[in-house]
Design a protein that fits this description.
With 206 residues, the protein is α/β, with parallel strands linked by helices. Helices cover 52% and strands 11% of the residues. It has eight helices and five strands, in the order βαβαβαβαβαααα. It has a five-stranded parallel β-sheet, sandwiched between helices. Helix 3 links the parallel strand 3 and strand 4.
């Protein structure tokens, strides 16, 4: 069994909960506490600087008055950069969070952290979420590398290539290449254009 500890960030306006989460989860995860006040963009920079594998955030962040946003705003800010980055919204106000968040599957009650019976289920869920994301990243990269070596793709392979390219594009929205530029055979067409350009340059040199 793997002993890898994933790095998980936690953001909460309540210092008691910050300490509790670190105490309860540090045996399974490398917990990185995010201090507030902080900006939404600062949270994304923290994720990159600390090479986090996932983020947990309290839903009702603005209670302290130190920030003007809530957990839903954080989710939207992060997914604007990476649509598939693993995020969990922890809350003691589950009904309200479920009403306001688009993805209800990422909402988890804080009681799971403080309940000895539910804590193992929470850690298994978070581990599985991170592993699933990383596996899809690796599989997509491998699919692209393998299929781009082929001269001709069948319909199924074209679909696989398109899906893999689209997924990777959605994980790095800050890149200059838009997901709309990806289409089946896009890379191959681009390579043909580059080859034609190089041939023309060689002819001009002669």
């Amino acid at each position: 069994m793997s002993n890898i500890k994933y790095k998980v960030g936690y953001l909460d306006e309540d210092e008691i909960w910050m300490a509790l989460v670190r105490q309860k989860l540090s045996s399974v995860f490398d917990i990185c506490l995010i201090d507030i006040p902080i900006t939404l963009e600062g949270i994304w920079e923290f994720i990159l600087d600390h090479e986090l594998d996932a983020l947990m955030v309290d839903f009702q962040l603005f209670d302290s008055g130190k920030v003007s946003f809530d957990g839903n705003d954080v989710v939207q800010a992060i997914t604007a950069h990476n649509q598939h980055f693993p995020i969990i919204v922890l809350t003691a106000h589950e009904n309200r969070a479920l009403d306001e968040l688009d993805n209800v599957l990422i909402v988890k009650g804080k009681r799971m952290i403080n309940d000895a019976d539910e804590l193992p289920n929470f850690t298994k869920m978070l581990n599985a979420l991170i592993k699933s994301y990383k596996t899809k990243l690796t599989d997509s990269q491998q699919t692209i590398l393998e299929l781009q070596k082929k001269d001709v793709l069948n319909e199924l392979e074209e679909s696989k290539l398109f899906n893999a390219q689209s997924f990777l594009a959605e994980t790095c929205k800050d890149d200059t290449v838009s997901p709309n530029q990806f289409s089946a055979g896009y890379s191959k067409q681009l390579q043909k254009l580059l080859d034609m350009a190089n041939t023309l340059l060689d002819e001009l040199k002669d």
